[in-house]
Amino acid sequence: MSVLVTGGTGYIGSHTIVELLNAGEKVIIIDNFSNSKPEVLDKIKEITKKNVVFYKINYLDEKEMQKVFEENPDIEVVINFAGFKAVGESVQKPLEYYHNNVTGALILLQMMKKYHVKKFVFSSSATVYGEPEKIPLTEDCKVGGTTNPYGTSKLMIEQILQDLYHSDSSWDICILRYFNPVGSHESGLLGEEPQGIPNNLMPYIVRVASGTLKELSVFGNDYPTPDGTGVRDYIHVVDLAKGHLKAIEKLRKEEKGLYIYNLGTGTGYSVLDMVKAFERATNRKVPYKIVERRPGDIATCYADPTKAYEELGWRAEKTLEDMCQDAWRYIEKQTEK
Ligand code: UD1
Predict the structure, then answer these.
(1) pLDDT tens per residue, range 32-86
(2) CA–CA separation, 185 vs 238, rounded Å?
(3) Where are the alpha helices (DSSP H) in 49-148?
(4) pTM score of the predicted model
(5) What whole-number distance in Å separates Cα of residue 319 and Cα of residue 48?
(6) Is 77 within 8 Å of 119 (Cβ atoms)?
(7) Which atom of ligand 1 is nearest to the CA of 294?
(8) Is 150 a catalytic residue?
């Protein structure tokens, strides 16, 4: 049986592929390299010494998608990482974001239905909670109030999955709500490579430490948090990747369902905590200045990950120091080239 992974050469996708291959799974990847590079496939092979089946296609291309399902009758489960994810860009290009993320998911699900593949793992985000109803966030907290088309596209797909499951309970679906994924594979071979100037905190810190960017702008220090800067639940991408294996295990069990899990550590760190932790872990300086709040940001967001532990037997194991050191190792390897 194989696992079909869309967006498998992206940041979270590639780390998940490594864990799947290490666990002995047979993997088929679909990607069009819209936000990744073909070299990622070589790195995956270098780390795991294993082969994958790869299709360079856009998951919106129904004809090509059909070919994948025709040629691989042993697909058992699909993990969907394909999707655009830049929050700011989604505000500028809502139609492109809704089309790529929502239409893409619809095409994928229709294809799965046609070929009787009904196990689906979906990459969602803590962003679906909007302004948190309570902290820490549990899976039954209200969702909605997303502030950008990227976040709304995640919410829409969650709704589509709920409706699909209610219409036909032979589907077996796992929605994973990621908190803030950071870090890289410990080999330094895989990592996060945002195009242009990064929007997210950790990629920005790393580029300031390497001298590519001058200083970090800390977006506001007047939030109701211990040091006034925003608090988030940063999770090592390899821990996150392992959560997908546990999700598949759950879907392989007898009873069917639609399950939702928070994938976070349960601990919140502020922007300044992150700067200090990074400086300590890497011995590099990260100059920063305090600037205005960023529109759409919330003060505090972290998970209650108890449900994932109780039902999947998953919990994050890596430390903040690992997250910082591994993020840095990837950049060091890149500059060695
Ligand atoms: C953001 C997205 C979220 C998405 C997630 C992906 C927004 C509003 N939310 O979450 O939808 O799922 O990325 O990982 O964009 N910060 C700075 N300076 C910077 C960058 C960030 O001070 O240059 C601060 C932010 O104000 C925030 C924290 O760092 O307090 C984390 O920011 P970021 O990494 O962008 O993640 P989120 O905003 O939590």
Answers:
(1) 999 999 999 999 999 999 999 999 999 999 999 999 999 999 999 999 999 999 9
(2) 6
(3) 62-71, 87-92, 94-98, 104-114
(4) 0.97
(5) 23
(6) yes
(7) 26
(8) yes
